[in-house]
Amino acid sequence: MSNLTDLMTRAAAGIDATPTAEVLDDDLARGHRARRLRSRRAAGAGVTAVLAVGLALAVPLTSTPPAAAVPLVAFVGEQPDGFVLDVVPEGWRVLASTPGDLVLAAEGDSGEDPAVYTGRIVATLLAPGSVPDDLGTAPTVTVDGEVVSVYPMLGADGPDGTHGVFVAQGDGRYLYVQVPAEVHWTAQAAAEFAATVTATGDATASVG
Amino acid sequence: MTRDDEFRSWAQQHRQGLVRTATLLTAGDTHTAQDVVQNALTKLYLAWPRVRAADDRQAYVRRALVNAFTDEMRSRGRRREDLRGELPDGAVSLGATDPDTLLLYDALRELPDRMRATVVLRYFHDLDVRETARALRCTQGTVKSQTARAIDKLRARLGPLLRDGTPAPPDPHRPDPQHRTHPTPALVAAPAPRSVA
């Protein structure tokens, strides 16, 4: 059937689509717009989710309102090693970063022992084969058309509000982002945030 | 070099290849092909650090293009339902005048979208069954069956054009024999790249 290859090759060769500078400018402009939109959407997702929960529960005015989701704000400051941040939870900062791990801490976190992840956001790149065996059956949400797995993490008494998010990188590796209960995000909000975290070429994948 | 500089440089080199693949995926509909490429490039820009770091960048880009194609066709399918009867069937905006190319696009247009994508990846990109299954996120068995059915349909539609490397003889019963210039030296002399990255 090599003739089909020849036919397709000849058809393709007849298409002159050499990009002009204007076409490339437009491509970049669309990319910039999409990036801004993604950041804004991620920033709004947590707040919207909590408002929705509050309305659904018809919380009486006299009761204690549910803890507000920490909103996302644009990240300013020096980008960490191995990762690029577009947004961070308001008041949170980069506590530690290596090409293997990124740790974010909340306002008021003393910063002691960056290797302790409790109550902190952690991002790490996982090598192929280092993801849970049951990843294919984990709960999923959709972000930008991509399926993202989000595990409800278990504490001593069951799910404790921590989300374990796995974002496929397209090459067999996964970006794992652990989001603690302290930000009060839904699985969708956690996944939206995780999708804004980019592992750069300098990030090293963990094997374990 | 900034992220934008890198992306722009890469797009300058590879955009034409993406458009060529997308044009085959859309069976010669260059307007839809441009939409598909634009959407794929936007996704690739968002994921650029991942794209740059990918062990197999070609595979990553192919998957982005196929995803954009699938999304676009699904979206157009919905719009077509809304506007049924108002759109011309198989509208093609194509500058190509090579009659074999027009026949090829006619034949490809009769294939379901996923089946068309399968043969484009198998025969234009020269991917094996495993690579094609990975790009389409389906099983290798699906690729094999889709390929077999596609080839049967194309053979029935294109007839002599698909006989092993032999230029098709003039045939008065073929739909568009006029201005036949096959083989076209200018086109043969400028083969298209088969990769997208």
From TrEMBL, chain A:
Domain of life: Bacteria
Residue ranges crossing the lipid bilayer per the database entry: 42-61
Keyword line: Membrane, Transmembrane, Transmembrane helix
Protein name per UniProt: Alanine and proline-rich secreted protein Apa
Protein species of origin: Cellulomonas phragmiteti
TrEMBL record, chain B:
Gene3D superfamilies: 1.10.1740.10, Winged helix-like DNA-binding domain superfamily/Winged helix DNA-binding domain
Domain RNA polymerase sigma-70 region stretches: 12-79
Entry keyword set: DNA-binding, Sigma factor, Transcription, Transcription regulation
Listed SUPFAM superfamilies: Sigma2 domain of RNA polymerase sigma factors (SSF88946), Sigma3 and sigma4 domains of RNA polymerase sigma factors (SSF88659)
Domain RNA polymerase sigma factor 70 region 4 type residue range list: 103-154
Region (Disordered): 160-197
Highest taxon listed in the record's lineage: Bacteria
Homology family: Belongs to the sigma-70 factor family. ECF subfamily.
Record PANTHER family: ECF RNA POLYMERASE SIGMA FACTOR SIGM, RNA POLYMERASE ECF-TYPE SIGMA FACTO
NCBIfam families linked: SigE-fam_strep, sigma70-ECF
Protein name, per record: RNA polymerase sigma24 factor
Organism of this sequence: Cellulomonas phragmiteti
